Amino acid sequence: MNYTFKALSDPTRRKILDLLKEEDLTAGEIAEHFNMTKPSISRHLNLLKQAELIWDERKGQFIYYSLNTTVFQDLMKWVLQFQNQGGTGNE
């Protein structure tokens, strides 16, 4: 879960996740939305993969990135546990 929070802490990585919410994209297509080098985008994508927030799949000459919705579901369950406890933690 630490990788997940680290990955989500960066606004560039959050924007990449927003882009992938719409459709699967290649690294080049993702890079078109940012004013940074492709190696920088690659580092962001690798961190997102380490956190298992995205998957990559080779299709012909290209690697497509897509969201791993299972991790988001697990994260939401974890967050909702705090809401469902109802206490402030100061009891």
UniProtKB/TrEMBL annotation:
Listed InterPro entries: ArsR-like_HTH, HTH_ArsR_DNA-bd_dom, HTH_MetalResp_TranReg, SdpR-like_repress, WH-like_DNA-bd_sf, WH_DNA-bd_sf
Gene3D superfamilies listed in its UniProt record: Winged helix-like DNA-binding domain superfamily/Winged helix DNA-binding domain
Occurrences of domain HTH arsR-type (ranges): 1-87
Protein's UniProt keywords contain NADP: no
Highest taxon of the lineage: Bacteria
Chaperone listed as a keyword: no
Keywords in alphabetical order: DNA-binding, Transcription, Transcription regulation
SMART domains: HTH_ARSR (SM00418)
CDD domains per the UniProt record, alphabetical: HTH_ARSR (cd00090)
NCBIfam families: HTH_metalloreg, repress_SdpR
Name of the protein in its database record: Winged helix-turn-helix transcriptional regulator
Species per Swiss-Prot/TrEMBL record: Cytobacillus citreus
Taxon lineage: Bacteria, Bacillati, Bacillota, Bacilli, Bacillales
